[in-house]
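Troubleshooting: if your tokenizer reports a length mismatch, compare your output against this known-good record of 224 residues.
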Amino acid sequence: MTDESKTAAKAGALIVPVSPFQQNCTLLWNAATMHGVVIDPGGDVPDILAAIKQAGITVDEIWITHGHIDHVGGAAELRDELKVPIVGPHVADKYLLDNVVASGANFGMTGVRNFAPDRWLNEGDQVKIGDLTFDVYHCPGHSPGSVAFFNKDMRFAIVGDVLFNGSVGRTDLPGGDHATLISSIKDKLLPLGDDIGFICGHGPGSNFGHERMTNPFLNHSEMG
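Known-good structure output:
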């Protein structure tokens, strides 16, 4: 696991790469209270539990950015271990959560379970870690129900597989659509500001300004 620097004085983060896909399961917490959330527990639940203990935090919720197996494979198990609610994604990804077991079988992932969240998320909703408030943006394209979480005060976002450092989410899976994905990025995420730093679902994070200027999927005529 790799430590992430403080997103701001108010919060801390720890990334735990999980599953054969090395997905960035993220622990995010309020530095004042040491209460936090687990975002996208894609598998390797013992490693996630060890990271929670290492960070010394109390987990209040599990947040899900979208329903693909590498982001949700450990969600049901972790919910049972921690006895906390699952929040997200958008209901458009229900078909993915209804088929976690079948999807896992395609990749040799055992022990995964289908589940439903305790709360679906919609555009304009908010989620909180104590007094840290995150706005929810529905960003379809990679999957129909993908969401991103944005904290205005910290100038920080969690974007799942919508946007990467130097790339964007794949759109060749069922329910994916490239034009919709690019619209989600340019109409919802980039206008939040070039200074916004983000953690993505795989690999190192970046900021929106860097991606706007250098990301090959964003800096050509398709951006209009």
